[in-house]
Structure formats: structure tokens, C-alpha cells
């Protein structure tokens, strides 16, 4: 009998990304990164001139960070422990929006944090990638966890019956991200694993979570 499947994002869900990226930019690239929205194009300025970093340079810097600096990323509180707990109840895979060349380094990065799970890379909306993973696993039910609302919309549009949890574990970024629950594209918005884990377990057990 097939098991449930959890498809989980990585950056800002399992591992902090914005903080380590900002530290590296300031130390090595002469760029200040100020989080005031979810738009990187408005957040990054050259220290010397104060001018906005152009889109082409933003993508170059992001690629460079994931090429050489992934070791800087720290686990979000409770995230890896929660995933290990969930693996007792479901298959878990990681779906991360990195170029395919970074798949092995992402998998190795997670192993250094003690998490050895299949990693899939994707570019663009995640719904089609989730559908392909579902076709591979043929799960009894499918759950999706991500920090960006557009991926929840894509998942709901592409995968019938999917349950989605909008979770951004980076407190600095979370207030600036549009809520997929409010948009009708997620089944819950929970930004910490202490509350997200019991919510997920309750749904895996097909009952409502206990309240105090």
C-alpha cells in the first residue's frame, strides 16, 4: 500500500538563505542587502555607489552563492527534526528551485545537516515538477510545503487533491511574503515548525490537531 508523500522546499523552509546570502554579499561582493519586501530587485545596492544591483547581477550573485557558499546556510529551528519525524509517517522529498547542476551539492548539503532524502531541482512554477514526482511515487496523498505563494498556486492548479502548507521560517522575510492561505492557494499558513509539525501530523492521521 502506498504511503503519503511530502514534497518540501529547502531555502527559508529548512535552511536559512537570506541571512547567509546577505552576510556573504557584504563581506565579499560590496553589496548591501536590506530586506524590506520579497523583491530582491529592490533590496540589493552596491555599497560604493548606493545604486540598485541590476537583475543580471542579482542572478549572477545568486548563482555564485550556491556555487561556493552553501556551507554558510544554517538550519531553521526545528525544521530538520520535524522532517525526520515526518519520515516515520510519509515519504519525504525535497523540491528546490536551483539549477540542475546544484542538485548534488544541495543533497550533500542536507546530508551534512543529517538529512538524507531525495532532492529534485526545478526552475519556474513547481506544480508540473510536483506532478511528475507524484507520478513517480504514486502516493496515497500528497502534501506540499513552500515559502512562496506562487508555488502553492501552481501546485493547486496542477495536482488534484494536494494539501499545501505555506511556511516561511525566516522571521525577517516572512512578514513581507503574500499569504497563500489568504489567496485561497494553501490549506494553512504557519511560519514555525513547532506548530507546523503537529498540523501536518494531524492531517496525515486524518484528524484535527488537538488544541489547548
SSE blueprint:
Elements: E1 5-8, H1 18-29, E2 31-33, E3 44-46, H2 55-68, H3 79-86, E4 91-96, H4 103-112, E5 119-121, H5 127-137, E6 142-146, H6 149-158, E7 163-166, E8 188-189, H7 193-204
Parallel strand pairs: 1-4, 1-6, 4-5, 6-7, 7-8
Antiparallel strand pairs: 2-3
Helix pairs in contact: 3-7, 5-6
Structural features, described:
- This protein is α/β, with parallel strands linked by helices.
- The chain folds into two domains: 5-16 and 75-204, HAD superfamily/HAD-like (Rossmann fold, 3-Layer(aba) Sandwich), CATH 3.40.50; 18-72, no CATH class.
- Helices cover 36% and strands 14% of the residues.
- The protein is built from seven helices and eight strands; from the N terminus they run βαββααβαβαβαββα.
- The strands form two sheets. Strands 5-4-1-6-7-8 form a six-stranded parallel β-sheet. It has a two-stranded antiparallel ribbon with strand order 2-3.
- β4 (91-96), α4 and β5 (119-121) form a beta-alpha-beta unit.
- α3 (79-86) packs parallel to α7 and α5 packs across α6.
- The chain is globular.
- The chain starts with a strand and ends in an 8-residue tail after the last helix.
- The model is unreliable at 207-212 (pLDDT under 50).
Features:
212 residues; globular; alpha/beta; 8 strands; two-stranded antiparallel ribbon; Rossmann fold; disordered C terminus; six-stranded parallel sheet
Concise structural overview:
The protein has 212 residues and is an alpha/beta fold.
Amino acid at each position: 500500500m502506498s504511503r503519503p508523500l511530502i514534497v518540501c522546499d529547502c531555502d527559508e523552509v529548512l535552511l536559512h538563505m537570506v541571512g547567509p546570502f546577505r552576510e556573504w554579499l557584504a563581506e565579499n561582493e560590496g553589496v548591501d542587502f536590506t530586506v524590506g519586501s520579497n523583491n530582491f530587485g529592490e533590496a540589493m545596492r552596491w555599497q560604493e555607489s548606493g545604486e540598485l544591483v541590476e537583475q543580471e547581477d542579482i542572478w549572477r550573485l545568486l548563482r555564485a552563492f550556491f556555487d561556493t557558499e552553501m556551507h554558510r546556510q544554517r538550519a531553521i529551528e526545528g525544521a530538520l527534526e520535524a522532517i525526520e519525524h515526518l519520515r516515520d509517517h510519509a515519504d519525504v522529498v525535497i523540491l528546490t528551485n536551483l539549477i540542475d547542476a546544484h542538485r548534488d551539492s544541495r543533497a550533500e548539503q542536507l546530508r551534512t545537516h543529517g538529512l538524507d532524502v531525495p532532492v529534485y531541482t526545478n526552475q519556474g512554477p513547481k506544480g508540473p515538477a510536483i506532478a511528475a514526482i507524484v507520478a513517480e511515487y504514486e502516493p496515497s496523498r500528497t502534501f506540499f510545503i513552500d515559502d512562496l505563494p506562487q508555488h502553492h498556486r501552481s501546485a493547486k492548479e496542477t495536482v488534484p487533491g494536494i494539501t499545501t502548507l505555506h511556511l516561511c521560517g525566516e522571521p525577517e522575510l516572512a512578514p513581507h511574503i503574500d499569504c497563500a492561505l489568504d489567496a485561497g492557494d494553501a490549506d494553512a499558513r504557519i511560519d514555525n515548525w513547532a506548530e507546523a509539525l503537529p498540523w501536518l501530523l494531524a492531517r496525515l492521521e486524518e484528524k484535527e490537531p488537538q488544541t489547548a
